[in-house]
């Protein structure tokens, strides 16, 4: 499968990126904010949902994601001192506050969040190489 490369400029685009990155895992020290560049970036091991195979546990791929036009970053429920702490990304959402600006929220398992105050939504996601066998298939309870 070719490397995934996605661009999100609105809520609909972001829903697609959120689906592709659901259940990605990353360490706390794999994300950071460069205020002078107005850029928040992270690297993750995303679960390759687009190549799901019920006969095996699936695949993971290393991927990079960055948000541009970021003014401020806030985190809740995440121990930033635990640099090796592992986070499980559940979703990415965007709420407009004063169009086109708004807040992007990255929600993690266990209730932690990272909120990005942005001038406008601009996100890029790119795979960084070959995939490998996942240790387990992510499972979610359904109501």
What does this structure look like?
With 143 residues, the chain is mainly beta. It has one domain (5-133). The chain is built from one helix and ten strands; from the N terminus they run βαβββββββββ. The protein has one helix spanning 11-21, and strands spanning 5-8, 25-27, 31-34, 39-47, 59-68, 70-76, 86-98, 101-108, 113-118, 123-133. It has a five-stranded antiparallel beta sheet, covered by helices on one side. Strands 2-7-8-9-6 form a five-stranded antiparallel beta sheet. The longest helix has 11 residues, at 11-21. The radius of gyration is 15 Å and the shape is globular.
**Outline:** globular
Strand order of the largest sheet: 1-10-5-4-3
Kindly state the mean pLDDT as a whole number?
A: 93
Beta-strand segment tally:
10
Topology:
Elements: E1 5-8, H1 11-21, E2 25-27, E3 31-34, E4 39-47, E5 59-68, E6 70-76, E7 86-98, E8 101-108, E9 113-118, E10 123-133
Antiparallel strand pairs: 1-10, 2-7, 3-4, 4-5, 5-10, 6-9, 7-8, 8-9
């Amino acid at each position: 499968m070719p490397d995934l490369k996605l661009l999100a400029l609105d809520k609909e685009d972001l829903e697609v990126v959120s689906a592709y990155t659901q259940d990605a895992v990353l360490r706390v020290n794999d994300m950071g904010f460069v205020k002078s560049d107005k850029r928040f970036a992270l690297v993750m091991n995303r679960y390759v949902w687009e190549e799901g195979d019920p006969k095996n546990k699936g695949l993971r791929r290393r991927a990079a994601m960055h948000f541009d036009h970021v003014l401020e970053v806030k985190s809740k429920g995440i121990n930033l001192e635990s640099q090796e702490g592992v986070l499980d990304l559940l979703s990415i959402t965007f709420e407009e506050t004063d169009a086109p600006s708004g807040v992007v929220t990255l929600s993690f398992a266990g209730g932690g969040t990272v909120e990005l105050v942005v001038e406008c939504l601009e996100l890029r996601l790119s795979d960084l190489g070959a995939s490998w066998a996942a240790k387990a298939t992510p499972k979610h309870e359904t109501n």
